[in-house]
Amino acid sequence: MVKQDRAIRTRRAILEAAAAVFDEKGYRAAKLSDILERVNLTKGALYFHFSGKEALANAVLDAQVSETPVPCAQACKMQEYVDMGLLFARLLVSDPLLRASVRLSLEQVPEINRNSPYEQWVGRTTRVLTEAKERGEVLLHVDPEETARITVGAFSGVNSMVSTMVPRLDLEREVSVLYRHLLAGIVVPSVLMHLDVDPGRGARVLAEAGLKPASL
Amino acid sequence: MVKQDRAIRTRRAILEAAAAVFDEKGYRAAKLSDILERVNLTKGALYFHFSGKEALANAVLDAQVSETPVPCAQACKMQEYVDMGLLFARLLVSDPLLRASVRLSLEQVPEINRNSPYEQWVGRTTRVLTEAKERGEVLLHVDPEETARITVGAFSGVNSMVSTMVPRLDLEREVSVLYRHLLAGIVVPSVLMHLDVDPGRGARVLAEAGLKPASL
């Protein structure tokens, strides 16, 4: 059990080091030796966890969804839809691994599955919207998968914009504004007025979600 | 006059070649010699137009806005807001220079002004939304600059998602869906019902805008 814990910690340390190196140098220029040096491990120890640079990049990409906890259940399903976005915004501000993962998914590298995080986010969002629709929380014309796709695409674009614009914008505030814009076209008015889309919502959801493991 | 025309054509040919090389290799790996070879010019001829790789990259970035025509005036200002987005989506499908410019703006290169296209798009969009607000076409709580920022960020994210997802999605369709989602939170209902947000709108606007030069 102790051994297993250590293996999990080592794996996470390797992922964080790889994310930092990919972030600093880009995928192509990043070398395994840079990652090993940063994490202070031998090549053999790294190969015990990952088959190489490509596998590392794909694991960093996957961490974006698998390391993001699922927000706690709420009385209203559409609050969970909002919470997913604001929680992820909160985590992007505080977690370098997730931030590097998002940046990696914008690099043009054919060897890595850049579409995988999109697909996983769209899947998670579609499931919440489908349930919200069954409960009558969303407008009749809403197609859950279509709305999920637009939400994920728009979120990722707002995130890139925030990190590019000078002076840098406040991600949690911009994501809150994005959701306020989207929700009027998705949610029935009686639900809309009860949703908490405050920029500080992400931090509160994170505290609530503390105990719940990430799962797909 | 003929000389000037030729200079304009040469400048455009250099920009297109630079865009193609940046797109293929990324900014860092791209070499001036690759660009010269593609456009069949001497170093001296290139330096007559651009001071080097950095200037070329910034010119490719600027082309994203300066080469995109302003849609024709419409009876309703919010139709112009929609037209800007659908026209740009149409152009991104057909113009490799614009597509490369957008990709370049996602690269992490401190030497180039990646924020410049964002700022220019946000400026153009803010002006249209401000006029629409003066005319009473948008909801009272709408802050033109905030909504412009969200529109530009969301658009760029949907565009990245479309080119990443496998199978590739249809950009004009996804942008149409994005605008349908955003508009309900921006426009007063009496204007909303008259807006044309059809995916084919971009091609029609392009035909109409044919004679109008791009200007900021």
Quaternary arrangement of the chains shown? homodimer
CATH architecture of the largest domain in chain A: Orthogonal Bundle
Largest sheet of chain A: none
- Going by helix content, strand content and strand pairing, the class of chain A is mainly alpha
Write the layout of secondary structure elements.
Two copies of one chain form a homodimer.
Chain A: H1 2-25, H2 32-39, H3 43-49, H4 53-66, H5 77-94, H6 96-104, H7 115-134, H8 144-164, H9 171-183, H10 189-192, H11 201-209
Helix pairs in contact in A: 1-2, 1-4, 1-6, 4-6, 4-7, 5-7, 5-9, 5-11, 7-8, 8-9
Structure characterization notes:
Two copies of one chain form a homodimer. With 216 residues, the first copy, chain A, is an all-alpha fold. Chain A folds into two domains: 2-64, Arc Repressor Mutant, subunit A, CATH 1.10.10.60; 68-209, Tetracycline Repressor, domain 2 (Orthogonal Bundle), CATH 1.10.357. Helix content of chain A is 68%, strand content 0%. Chain A is built from eleven helices and no strands. The first copy, chain A, has helices spanning 2-25, 32-39, 43-49, 53-66, 77-94, 96-104, 115-134, 144-164, 171-183, 189-192, 201-209. Chain A is elongated, with a radius of gyration of 18 Å. The A-B interface holds A 26, 28-29, 103, 105-106, 108, 114-115, 118-119, 146-147, 149-150, 152-162, 164-166, 169, 174, 177-178, 180-186 and B 26, 28-29, 103, 105-106, 108, 114-115, 118-119, 146-147, 149-150, 152-162, 164-166, 169, 174, 177-178, 180-186.
